Amino acid sequence: MASLEQKASEWSGVDPKDAVAVDEINLFQKLGLQTFINLSTNFYNRVYDDEEEWFRSIFSNSNKEEAIRNQYEFFVQRMGGPNLYSQRKGHTALIGRHRTFPVTHKAAERWLHHMQQALDSAADIDEDSKTKMINFFRHTAFFLVAGVELKNQNKGTGCKNCSHHH
């Protein structure tokens, strides 16, 4: 069976090398904390105002401020900054944390649509950083789709590859 990594690359159209290009430079040092706060705030404003009810409803049980904070703290931590997210929440466990959401191809594309718009409107992020970030986001979004699909298939059987999340 194809690995989550392979599926993520196939579905996102992002080469694995491009997906980890965010690691070539320290984007946190380059952009600073406020840039990430602004990006996540802009993103979630778009999500919570989405005219598509099916997409908005995915987030209806989530607190917007908490969602913004979780996201920017995770981005900061993943892109070279302090471990803000783990210090507060523990292991990032992305797949496990998204398991209760309907993480479908359609939802991933809609999420990415809003993130692309948020990035496009971010005057404080240079083009090279935007490219690295959107490639990471695209790949990660479809990695999540594959992971949640797999977890839901294995409900009750215990996912043998997920021991590091416990």
From TrEMBL:
Statement: the UniProt record of this protein carries the keyword Lipoprotein: no
The keyword Heme belongs to this UniProt entry's keyword annotation: yes
Keywords: Heme, Iron, Metal-binding, Transport
InterPro entries reported for this sequence: GlbO/GLB3-like (IPR044203), Globin-like_sf (IPR009050), Globin/Proto (IPR012292), Hemoglobin_trunc (IPR001486)
GO biological processes: oxygen transport
One Pfam family linked to the record: Bac_globin
Record GO terms (molecular function): heme binding; metal ion binding; oxygen binding; oxygen carrier activity
Family membership: Belongs to the truncated hemoglobin family. Group II subfamily.
PANTHER family, A to Z: HEMOGLOBIN (PTHR47366:SF3), TWO-ON-TWO HEMOGLOBIN-3 (PTHR47366)
Protein name per the record: Hemoglobin
